[in-house]
Amino acid sequence: MAVITRPLPVAPRPKPGELISSWLGRTAARYDMDDAAFRALLLGEDGRGRERLDLHLTTDEVARIADAFRLPPERVATLGLTQAWPRVAVDWLPGVGRKMRARGNLDLSWCRKCLEEGHSSGGTYLDREAALPLCLCHRHQHWRVDCCQHCSPDNPPRFVWDKGAVELACGDCRRLLRTPGRPIWADC
Predict the structure, then answer these.
(1) Staple partner for 23: which of 14, 39, 75, 116, CB 3.0–4.6 Å?
(2) Alpha-carbon gap, residue 167 to 175, rounded angstroms
(3) Is 75 a residue whose pLDDT tops 80?
(4) CB under 8 Å to 134, separation ≥6 — which residues?
């Protein structure tokens, strides 16, 4: 299997407090790649991906990501949820496998206002709080949502490159999740 062995020509930096999966998903979108395929190239995985990558990175994963993104390994190592919140009860974090939910390695929820702020500052992303079982965004006092409001998704949300910016879209109906409306990518 091919693996990225050189620095990426376009290597976006992680946003403050961003989830690892969000950062890698945004980068995959910049290269018009599926997140799982990008992670397979980056980390040498079989394509399915290691579960709960957002919790912590192995030493090998830190080294590969640091090399590809031209970042100090110490910076990459601090991105995991268990590094940011050493006492987080990881077994209590919402998991996957429930119908009618956005599925992924962690069951995520997001605030549309937070996504909109990310969009206005250059690209939508998911912060660490998206992995926590929260119902309300503490910054905006808005309800967090955990699935597309237009369909019952079977696939996780996906970052896509649209009109010069990264967007988070439903993996099934392809609608924007920050302001649900128009589909944004063609049938594959």
Answers:
(1) 14
(2) 10
(3) yes
(4) 109, 144
